[in-house]
Structure formats: C-alpha cells, structure tokens
Amino acid sequence: MARGKLILIEGLDRTGKSTQTEKLVKSLGDNALLVKFPERSTQIGGLIDQYLTNPEFLLPDQAIHLLFSANRWEIAESMKRSLLKGQHVVMDRYVYSGVAYSAAKDTKGMDLNWCLQPDKGLLKPDLTLFLTNSDSELRQGFGEERYECTDFQDKVRGQFAAIFDTLEDPDYKSKHIKFLDTTHKTIEEVHQLVRAVTSDYIQGHADVNEFI
Ligand code: DGP
Ligand code: NA
Ligand code: NA
User: What is the value of ipTM here, to two decimals?
Assistant: First the structure.
C-alpha cells in the first residue's frame, strides 16, 4: 500500500493555520489525521503550555527550545506508523516554527543552525503550505500568549524567510513548499486553495522519504 503524505501547514500566529488544517483534514476524510504542534496534552506539552501561558514560568531559551523539539519526537513514531498504514498526516506547525520562533530571540549562539540540530532525523514533510497574511487588522489582534506581539512576530517572519532562503535546498523548495497569500481571502477561499494544492500534490508527486 502507498504510504500517506506528510502535509504541513505553517505560518505566523493568526494566519489561519488551525482553521485550515482542520478543514483540510475533514475534506480528506477518514484517511487523514491531524497533528498539532505543540501538542499540549503530553507531559512535555504541559510544560510548553505553562511556558506559553504563564509569564512567571521561566525557562532558559535553550531549554524551552529542546522541549518543543522533544514534543515533536514524542509523536514522531506514531506519525510514522500512521503514514505507513496509508493515512495522510496533516500537521499544524512543525520544524519550521521550531527553528523560526527560537532563532528570533537573539539569544547568544541560538542561530538557525543551532536551532535545527535537535530536530535532525525527524521526517521531512512531503508538502508544506506556508500561509502569509498582510491584513493590518490581524497585526493588532494578537492573544495573550508569550510570543503574540507585533515586534516579536516581525522577527519570526524574518527567520521564516531566512530558513526558506538558506536552509532549504532550492530543488526541494520548488517542489515541496508552496507559499499561499491569504490576504483579503475568506476562510472558504483559502480552503479551496489549500485543497487544490494538496490534491494536486497527492496525485502527482512522489514521497520525499528524507529526514530533516
Ligand atoms: P500555537 O498553539 O500554534 O498557537 O503555538 C503556540 C506558540 O508557540 C506560537 O506562538 C508559536 C510557538 N511555537 C510553536 N512551535 C514552536 C517551537 O517549536 N519552538 C518555539 N520556540 N516556539 C514554537
Ligand atoms: Na498562538
Ligand atoms: Na537568535
């Protein structure tokens, strides 16, 4: 049986990732599974949740970085099993968020390459959909969590760009990463775009079968 595809929806906070991953999974039917990172329900995820929601819960930048990565490793095996059973796995965030949010911190030594190391060996996505949105009202409506402020999001945006320009091989990038501008589009319009790109990919492209 053909293995399922590993599909990732990425982007900054408030770009509609969670809505779009949920809608994509529903549209793929029984044959698809949603995995959201961070997965806050595990033990490691509980620490991540505290870090994000409680400003008094302090951890060194290196330590929380490793916990986010460990949270992906916790779920890696079960994701692999689902893919091998033929299920598509649709992720809401993954390694790119892992590297971009940590590297955006200006902490000494935490450059892109340092940040990438603990994720080395995780499965590489078959298809990444990177959502961008430049609506100015989105920039004012962030929530209360640790990273949700305009200045920090601007830094994260810069790091995402650097990752796609410097860390990814141009051949992989052109075949397996799609940038979708959702500015002024409705949820339904974005969903149709996401569906079209995904079904096109599922029909026409071989699995990546590489590791980060
Ligand atoms: P979400 O539940 O998708 O809103 O993610 C929570 C916040 O954590 C969001 O601001 C993005 C950030 N984030 C997600 N993954 C990682 C990661 O691996 N490392 C770091 N440093 N931040 C992350
Ligand atoms: Na968030
Ligand atoms: Na940094």
Answer: 0.95
Q: Does CATH number 3.40.50.300 belong to domain 6-204?
A: yes
Q: Are 48 and 13 in contact (CB under 8 A)?
A: no
Ligand 1 centre from 38 Cα, in Å? 6
Ligand 1-lining residues (CB < 6 angstroms): 13, 37-38, 52, 65, 68, 93, 97-98, 101-102, 145, 147
Is the alpha carbon torsion for 110, 114, 118, 122 positive or negative? Answer: positive
Write out the two tokens for 122: 């995780």
> Phi, psi at residue 199, to the nearest 5°?
-70, -35
Helix 61-84 and helix 43-53, axial crossing angle in degrees, nearest 10: 130
Q: pLDDT, tens digit, for every residue of 127-173?
A: 999 999 998 777 777 899 999 999 999 999 999 999 999 999 999 99
pTM for the model: 0.96
Q: Cα(4)–Cα(33) distance, rounded to whole angstroms?
A: 10
How far, in Å, CA of 205 to CA of 212, rounded?
A: 19
Where is 132: in which H helix or E strand? Answer: strand 127-132
Query: What are the domain boundaries of the chain?
Result: 6-204
Whole-number pLDDT of residue 140: 72
Q: Is 94 helix (H, G, I), strand (E, B) or coil?
A: coil
Residue 201 burial (10 A CB sphere; 0-12, 13-18, 19+):
middle
